Amino acid sequence: MVISSLSVVPALLIRALIDRAIPDEDVALLTLLGLGMVGVPLVNAGVGVVQRWLSSKVGEGIIFDLRRQLFAHLQLMSLRFFTATRTGELMNRLSSDVVGAQQAITGTFVTIVSNVISVAVILVVMIEADWRLTLLAVAALPLFVLPARRVAKVLRRVTQQQMEHEAKMSGVLQEGFNVSGAMLVRLFGRWEEEKQRFATEARQVRDLGVRRALVGRGFFAALGLVSAVGTAAVFWVGGLMVIDDAITLGTIVMFSTLLTQLYGPLSAISNSRVEFATSLVSFERVFEVLDLETDIPAPAEPVPLVPAVGRVEFEGVSFRYGGEGPEGLEAVRRFSWHSDGAPPEAAPAPSTRKWAVRDVSFAAEPGTLTALVGPSGAGKTTISYLVPRLYDVTSGRVLIDGVDVRRIAFEELAATVGVVTQETYLFHDTIAANLRYARPDAGDDELVAAARAANIDEMIAGLPDGYQTVVGERGYRLSGGEKQRIAIARVLLEDPKVLILDEATSHLDSRSEALIQDALEVLLEGRTALVIAHRLSTVRRADQILVVDDGRIVERGAHRSLLDAGGLYAELYRTQFETVAS
Predict the structure, then answer these.
(1) 0.70 exceeded by pTM
(2) Which of 220, 265, 398, 448 has the fewest beta carbons under 10 Å from its own?
(3) Which fold has domain 357-581?
């Protein structure tokens, strides 16, 4: 407001110089006017520094708030969302789109406000000087406004397309630059295909950027032509008025200075629809994600497990993956700032997707081992994922100590249920940091004790940096068996009452397999364990065996009784476990 108001002062000083100081030979006034010409930019500079500090503080605060909210919201999404979404596109929303949203506030909005103030102050001064020239100057205003609507629609559409292709380009980068992707490209020799895939998206971003620049430039060129015509008209009419002594020379010189300052903000105001239309695309893309409802909601009134015992029970549980429509980011509702009055969309038809789990009921008592066996794709892993709420059941209940897991706080559920998956994930950090992910307050002695119990301490001690060794992206500097034992040590640090274990030792050498089996003996001791069994020894020692097929529990019992029944378990035993044993 201060800078916009001071913008008219130099023109007033010039009029006073021409109309009063020089004709009257007033040296004092001339000196005062000279000091004013110096003082105005000094004040502007000081206010500009304060404005820059405030705008940067607000802008960075907006980026921080939006990123934090986006990250926190996405963390509550189920695995279904992440399996249907490319990681690079999510990263693009938290980086480029958030910055664009910040620019809409600290750039576009501030510019509009300052331009409105500038136009108001300039018009007041011009009307006070001569209302006739002022009307002539603003007569061209409709020519500023009319093209803006059409240009805004075009730029909004082009900007949205450009951002979507930038997100896809980020997805290609993320897939190609992680260790697994880079290895796959090299193993199959697909460098040219990947280069082409990236170039396709990058080319779209380039072409849309060129189109966006040309559309904007054409609009600004038209505005510049209108400004030139208006200025020429004021000059011609004002010159005639000076010749006829209707106004002073200082007034027409002041008008010539103010016209430049008037048409600039007028152009910016008429272009504000265009700028806002493009700037708000970023906000829309951010709000689309924030408006996604999580299918794993936090309980409104959590029920505590004090103390947790570890009894797990499934009551008539059924589950299937997703509905009929798109999932992940493809399922976002296109956010709109304006309601078009259209009726709400009809409710989607019930899903016809196959049930992954159907009417499963069983109980695992504290301290017992329950083995899940069955053919590939039968639903064993899905059943295990329902306990820690990686997915929520479609119907039925999963209970821990008699409490529905949907009523247990996320933090308490994570502390109660420990999971060792087939594919061990390690962060690009030290071994100690990866172990402490389970318990950040764990001391060095506790790390060593857990690693020793998992048969990995000796290997770690032999590394040059010991527990401070960086494991690399996804732990690729370690072997499969070493990563698995670190995962076991990590769960031992967490000390959960319920353990879910997807045994993955068949692809390891015999020594690593033996070390992991010894570590698993320690890990399973005294815990309620649900184990997706790949080994005969695990199956034989299980307190109960659940045979899963096509999402159902088709058989249950002990090893010997199931063998004698001659059903699916007996067949699996002959084709899988007996072969391994031999």
Answers:
(1) no
(2) 220
(3) Rossmann fold (3.40.50)
